[in-house]
Amino acid sequence: MSVVSKHKGPFLFIAEGVFMYLKREDVKSLVLKLQSEFPGSELVCEVVNSLWLKKPLKRIVNYKMQHRVHLGKDATFNFGIRDSKEMEEWHTGIQFLDDWSYFESEEKKLGWLKMFRNIELFRKTQWTVHYKLN
Question: Checking phi first, is residue 118 left (phi over 0); if not, alpha (psi -120 to 50) or beta?
């Protein structure tokens, strides 16, 4: 019996602080499963720019995670995308709707960091993407 027949939808799936720790094939498999089992639903997920997963930038990220944030000696990001529309390439039923970076916030505590909102490499270091799953 299909999950769709047991539940009414559509659903909103939120993956905050999850995908970057998984392997690419696992993220892709999960997103494609959600797309096929829950058509008409939406996915909001936090992602990391894949540029930060390559040397020398990955060393910076790993150092911060392992020594500054103290997530452990093996903590690392494994999955990233280059731009918000990349997941659309996985299936025609995945549609990019919108994205948001915390640098776009008017939050006062960002202070001088707001200057990075116009520099794509920094604005899209880690950001949130919204998809429709058809």
Answer: alpha
